[in-house]
Amino acid sequence: MTHAQTGIYAEPNLHGVTLLLNVMTDDVAHVRRKLARVPQLLEDLDLRFSEAMLNGYIAIGSDYWDVVYPESRPLQLTGFPDLNDGDRQAPRESVDLMLCVRSDRFDVNFQAARTLMEWLGHDVELIDQINTFRFMDGRDLLGFIDAPDNPRGMRRREIALVNDDPVFKGGSYIFSQRFRYDLRRWEQLSTEIQEHVMGRKKVTGERISEAVLSMVTHTQKARLVDAKEQPLELLRQNMPWGNLREQGLLGMYMSGKPQHVIHWLKNRYIADEQGDYDPLLDYIEAVSNAAFFAPSIDFLKSKSDISR
């Protein structure tokens, strides 16, 4: 049985920390050994702080993959798609590694991040640390329930993981978007206008009937179906981030079928024949975007000497 990194499909936590890293050494074999040890370190920390429900994963950037694992590449691993259309921009960022830790305790996340960074040592450079948190009852900072149509239960694992590739089974294609919000501008809108932008009721999350809407909504453009009404398989592991100076959302989209995520993103960003796109993009800005692959634990071990 293939062992996936559990942080990919885990249920939501209260706190998270995401580390974006660049590799500073050319010793590929050394890097492989370091990466292969990360899941075990996370498991040890989970056992130590069992009440915190700690989970996490290490993912390799699309540009760095061929450096560290040149002999085999996930068939559909590409860079973040080009989503620039009109005023809607999604600048691509090249990142070697993404390390994500989540738990129900901020202090445990801090300890876990320190432990993992000590293990990786001077072989990596920390580009950014993004502290995330659960807001209210699972809402976005805009005040609406985040991803109400997300898959639940075992379906999360089925959708998030690769199942049709024997080499990369149990891995996951991950697309990340770091959004910055202008909350003052958003909060100047009436609740009614906010609801019409989102296509849902703010308190309950109930969809608003299209018969009473006068515009294309975020809910319509972010539906998890394609043009033929076939389901798009993706799991969103989003969490708010921010301080009193700036705030936003760290969007994480996991899937065993990355073409589904790309279709979903393009449907939101690229205007259709009627000139319609996701209206929420007029109020939020994706300041950095990247594509990764999070291999299974078995793959990480097989490419190092950790199991020998």
UniProtKB/TrEMBL annotation:
Record key words, sorted: Iron, Metal-binding, Oxidoreductase, Peroxidase
Keyword Transmembrane appears in the UniProt entry: no
Record GO terms (molecular function): heme binding; metal ion binding; peroxidase activity
GO cellular component: cytosol
Keyword RNA-binding belongs to the record: no
Residue ranges constituting the Dyp-type peroxidase N-terminal domain according to the UniProt record: 21-134
Alphabetical list of InterPro entries matching this protein: Dimeric_a/b-barrel, Dyp_perox_C, Dyp_perox_N, Dyp_peroxidase
Cofactor list: heme b
Similarity comment text for this entry: Belongs to the DyP-type peroxidase family.
NCBIfam families, alphabetized: Dyp_perox_fam (TIGR01413)
Protein name: Dyp-type peroxidase
High-level lineage: Bacteria, Pseudomonadati, Pseudomonadota, Gammaproteobacteria, Alteromonadales
